[in-house]
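Write out the bound-state structure for acetyl coenzyme *A.
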Amino acid sequence: MTRTIIKGLGSFLPDNVVTNSDLEKIMDTSDEWIQERTGIKERRWISNRSETTSSMGCKAAKKAMEMAGLGPSDIDFVIFATLSPDYYFPGSGVLVQRDLGLDNVGALDLRNQCSGFIYGLSVADQFIKTGMYKNILLIGSEFHSGALEKSTNGRSVTVIFGDGAGAVVLSAAEEGEKGIISTCMHSQGEHAEALMIKGPATGVWVDELLEKENYGEPEWRPYMNGNFVFKHAVTRMPEAIQEVLDAAGKSSADIDLLIPHQANLRISAMVQKHFNMSDEKVFNNIQHLGNTTAGSIPIAMTQAFEEGKLKRGDLLCLTAFGSGFTWGAALLEF
Ligand code: ACO
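---
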């Protein structure tokens, strides 16, 4: 069966850096609290609507296509993972098809939040393995800052999230190339309401929100039961990593680099400790970017590659956990 390789990767980050001390000026928080609880020092927030979710995705995708040496007519399919699409509908995938001038290829939108990139990787892998497509563009992009409540009321969520996009080109492997070895995807919908934006959607429609005092706030703001999410994340991520290792007949000692979804530096540290891995084998960049949800893993992969921490031939493990709950992992030879 054909295997799937990552032929190109790229990322895009808005220029505007928002430090913890910037946040201290608009809400009751402190650099010390944020760093101690999350590891985050600064994040990027789009200023003056200079970007959209799809425009950042396109910029990351162009870099990934350039690295892969592929042009618009080479892309057979688009997968776009985000929880912050440009429009309620249509999804952002079609905007990428339009703005990158791709042929009239299929564009699939994934709504799996922090696990979106892992889900996308697994879906793309199936299409390539079966021979249906040869080159798939997978994008994870988030424009969080527009929906965050920038006051003390929203502090437990707002300080965590950042904007940005990452993309990969997944291609059919040549003879001898290994690529994706195993992936897994999971969900537990009983906790859907533990991390969510409720509306506007059919559960609480626009008219209903407008009738409410303060437009039903916080129903259209992100809600997160942080402690509860944290406890599940530190259990599910190691489980998923073990699952992809077992499927490949590998152990954690074989991993050259682990890139966990950048949700919280403490979560990454606990996953690292679970597998007794050294600092050099775990890549984190949440300190400078915050949690960019579907963008976090492809952005981190790009940075790790650019910094020489991820090399061709490395056994790379990726894992994510987030809203849904959804979680998963992937093991691949980069
Ligand atoms: N600044 C100062 N104080 C704050 C802030 C803030 N920004 N936010 C909350 N606090 C206060 C709270 O009000 C609380 O005060 P109290 O004790 O007087 O009530 C205290 O700090 C502790 O709050 P907790 O919520 O218990 O703090 P915790 O240690 O759990 O950290 C955090 C919160 C950072 C959100 C953590 O729970 C976390 O990272 N959770 C997981 C996030 C995650 O993985 N999300 C999944 C991915 S995101 C996605 O899928 C979209």
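---
The chain has two domains: 4-177, 180-333.
The longest strand covers residues 4-12.
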